[in-house]
Amino acid sequence: MGLRRRLREWVARLRPGNTSLFWNREYGAEKAGRNWASDVRLGFYDFAAGALPREPLRILEIGSGLGYGGRRLMEICPLWKVEGFEISRVAAEQAVIPTRCGDLLRDPLPPGFDYILMVQTLEHFRDTAAILARVTEAAVHGVVITVPFRGRLNRKHLASLDESSFAAWPGASFETRRRLYHKDGSEKVDLRVHLRVGPAPPAGAAP
Question: If you count Cβ atoms within 10 Å of the first and of the last residue's Cβ in the chain, which end, N or C, has fewer?
């Protein structure tokens, strides 16, 4: 690994989360729409949908990007109404679902949503326990999360997560799925987490 790459990854590890500038570049790229609407990406939403009840729900997706995943959820169950919360103004302005532009680390979450959804998003934050406390406090019924299972840290992924990462939330349920990574054919494992809402865990609890 070159010195410049090592330096970038070291700097990345100091960030609390990926910045709006980072995500504006991602969503402003020429192929962004095609990538985020791909079958590979939408497959994460198919996986997440398995934890949601088939009944009328208001769902807020955090890190909703261009909104293709939220649209996929409403195709799966027309009873669901999905809105987005996205740090990238570039993405929020182009989104195919109603999307608020906001920073989860600083801005209040809109109230009144039955479920909060984070699809392949939590790993982009360093202090995942603080993020989980925020989203569980904001949801009416529950929080559904998908993450890479014990994923590698890099400039994008700032946390590596498994079941123990959610030990402070009693009643959490878990499911994994295996898939082939489209870039090199290697096997990847994703973890789906369903958190029931309630008080935040006590200070000093394991993240």
Answer: N
Q: How many degrees, rounded to 5, is the angle at CA 102 between CA 98 and CA 118?
A: 70
pLDDT digits (tens, 9 = 90+) for 25-82: 888 888 888 888 899 999 999 999 999 999 999 999 999 999 999 999 999 999 999 9
In the block, residue with structure tokens 């008080």: 199
**Angle value at C-alpha 205, between 204 and 207, nearest 5 degrees:** 110
CATH placement of domain 3-196: 3.40.50.150
Strand 115-119 with 173-180, pairing = unpaired
pLDDT at 207: 38
Write down the domain spans for the chain: 3-196
Which residue, among 192, 137, 197, has the nearest Cα to 161 in the 3D structure?
192
Distances (CA, A) of 197 to 4, 39, 102, 155, 206: 43, 31, 22, 31, 17
110-141 pLDDT tens trace: 999 999 999 999 999 999 999 999 999 999 99
Q: Which two tokens stand for residue 167?
A: 């030990």
- Residue 96, judged by CB atoms within 10 A of its CB (0-12, 13-18, 19+), counts as middle
